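Supplementary Methods. Inverse-folding protocol.

Structures were first reduced to a discrete structure-token string of length 266. This string, shown here, constituted the complete conditioning input.
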């Protein structure tokens, strides 16, 4: 099927982004090592492994982009599994200068395919993850449109994050890390707020901010600044306060008014 400029196929479904063929030469050795490490560490306990983010999209920047992996196990992950995943991620990060950090999400096949996660984790795997190993769980999931249900179930819980971010700021966590984390979350939430009206999908944070700004011009500059910080975080106290005391609370309230609140998780 043909893909439109807005990330949809000719029937209006979100196309899966990313492909192993788009991985840039600098990052192919990292991906190969990650594949081998996952097989060695988890073997038959693993049902699926995926890449997501800039590496499979072909937009990664050597020395500045991280490697993002998602691993689905046949059973619920144990503390030992999580520790092994962290150790694996740390080794990859240390061994390859091309990447600036490794993120590894580890969960169960059952959770990905659950009714509760159908429009959150399920959508994420089906549309934003590139198969690396094992079965592709997208085969058991529906096609997705950029509608209000998807908006609610992906980002309709922003209000829950605000106190956690305030706690981390008060605790003195690394401000640049927080700036990058919070700004990315806010930009993606701002985009999905307007996604059904725009009727499309993008993972480009700069484009997300621009799309948001066309519908909320009074907040456009703040969102553009957040998009810039997502790539070049400064971590100033003023910026972090603006996220948690101004843009964040406003965005959470507007999101709930437009799309409702995400179904609670246990």
């Amino acid at each position: 099927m043909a893909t439109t400029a807005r990330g949809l196929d000719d029937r209006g479904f979100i196309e899966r982004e990313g492909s192993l063929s788009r991985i840039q030469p600098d990052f192919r050795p990292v991906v190969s090592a990650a594949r081998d490490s996952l097989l060695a560490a988890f073997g038959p306990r693993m049902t699926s492994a995926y890449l997501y983010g800039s590496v499979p999209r072909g937009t990664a920047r050597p020395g500045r982009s991280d490697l993002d992996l998602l691993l689905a196990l046949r059973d619920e992950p144990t503390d030992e599994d999580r520790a092994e995943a962290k150790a694996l991620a740390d080794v990859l990060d240390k061994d390859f200068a091309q990447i600036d950090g490794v993120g590894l999400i580890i969960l169960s096949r059952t959770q990905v395919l659950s009714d509760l996660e159908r429009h959150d984790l399920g959508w994420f795997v089906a549309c934003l993850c590139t198969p690396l190993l094992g079965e592709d769980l997208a085969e058991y999931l529906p096609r997705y449109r950029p509608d209000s249900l998807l908006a609610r179930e992906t980002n309709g819980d922003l209000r829950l994050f605000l106190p956690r971010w305030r706690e981390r700021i008060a605790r003195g966590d690394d401000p640049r890390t927080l700036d990058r984390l919070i700004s990315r979350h806010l930009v993606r939430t701002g985009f999905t707020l307007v996604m059904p009206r725009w009727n499309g999908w993008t993972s480009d944070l700069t484009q997300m901010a621009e799309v948001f700004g066309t519908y909320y011009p009074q907040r456009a500059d703040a969102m553009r600044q957040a998009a810039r910080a997502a790539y070049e975080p400064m971590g100033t106290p003023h910026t972090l306060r603006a996220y948690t005391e101004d843009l964040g609370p406003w965005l959470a309230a507007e999101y709930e008014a437009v799309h409702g609140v995400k179904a609670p998780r246990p």
